Amino acid sequence: MLFRSERMATFDSLTGLPNRAQFRTHLSRALELLSQTERKFAVLSIDLDRFKNVNDTLGHQAGDRLLSLVAQRLKACVRDNDIVARFGGDEFVVLQREMEQVEDGGELAGRLVKALSAPYEIDGQCVLIGASIGIAVAPEHGDDPEELLRNSDLALYRAKAAGKGDYRYFSADMDEEMQARRTLEIELREALRTDAFELHFQPLIDLQSGVVTTCETLVRWRHPTRGLVPPTQFISVAEETGLILALGEWVLRRACAEAVTWPARVRVAVNLSSIQFQAGKVVDLVSSALAASGLPAERLELEITESILLADTEDTLKALQQLRDMGVRISLDDFGTGYSSLSYLSSFRFDKIKIDRSFVRDVANRPDAGAIIQAITGLASTLGMCTTAEGVENPEELEWLRAQGCKEVQGFLFSRPLPARDLRA
Ligand code: C2E
Ligand code: MG
Ligand code: MG
Q1: What's phi and psi for 124, nearest 5 deg?
Q2: Any residues with CB less than 8 A from the CB of 218 and at least 6 apart, and which?
Q3: Which residues surround ligand 2, an ion (CB under 5 A)?
Q4: Does the pLDDT of residue 15 top 60, yes or no?
Q5: pTM for the full model?
Q6: Are residues 204 and 388 in contact, defined by beta-carbon separation less than 8 angstroms?
């Protein structure tokens, strides 16, 4: 009886592999031995790519079966005195002992990725997954268990970010980058608390009449030492940490309140992050911001990017439709940078397509960019959508865009983003 409960405490019940607690014991012992044997060892953190897909489409039983097969393949790749452990979910860790050299870690990782990426047969179905691996070698990458595990995890995070199905060694700059992100996160929280964000607005101009139709809201951060920080430097961290929800709500409410004071023919555009859609309360938030400010729904334009349509499409399309039914306009931002699938244009009737600056730049000298803009403006006008060219910086670009049938323009040629008081002037 005692034996059984002890076993449960140190082994993973699904795969029979050692669990996290037992792995830590092995790791501590390996570190103790390090000074005596002077043989290096490595911690390899493994994460399966697309495992969630299998669980979602074939069910949890198939998922469990796959994890058992993964455990077998891992065991088959390592030597008898190496340790393969399961930390939970699709997270596995290998302790590779008695290495000759640092490169042995990458050699094993390469074999593991290959072995795990070979097809599996589950309930008569062929299943394909991949694996990403982070490697920390002792003693060069750490001399205590926590540090080694954290560093192999950091390397894994990098391996995944670099496009899955590969391995990475830990390096000191990964740690620095992580520290910098952590500092940024703390500072962002503080900034939200102390109201350190500001809104700037950039006009969108109707090409035919030359009047301002809309002003786009662009957030900036008044940083105590770094000055005015542009959103490109903090939006992604805000998204990763979920802070974008609070920040995005603040931006929307402020933008609506500001826009109420503008001439009634000028709309306000606000960028929304896909995280705000995933969180599921966008429609309520927009209604609330409109009600609180008194801004008519018709004067609000929401800019979204294709990434919103990649995840969880059904709920997203429903939310977009509800917003549209309220009278809010929906724009597809940065078109031409992501997948730029034309199928998005038929999955939802956007009011506006914003063509990314990368296409507008040097448009006169690049036939490919020109052809694409022509195709988009043509398609958009057939579908009844407006096209706006972003980042127009000189008169040549402007004339060319006009000739291609572009309806609206935005860019430094007309105005940089400005604080609200300068904008009114
Ligand atoms: P975006 O929505 O595509 O905004 C346009 C960006 O292009 C702005 O950069 C603007 O300042 C810049 N821009 C405009 N005209 C020109 C031009 O003629 N030349 C050049 N070189 N650049 C031009 P900004 O303000 O740095 O914003 C960057 C991005 O950050 C925005 O791209 C948007 O995706 C995001 N962002 C800004 N504010 C918010 C926000 O409140 N919420 C969310 N989720 N994202 C935001
Ligand atoms: Mg935008
Ligand atoms: Mg854009």
Answers
A1: 75, 5
A2: 199, 200, 201, 202, 231, 271, 417
A3: 271, 303, 333
A4: yes
A5: 0.79
A6: yes
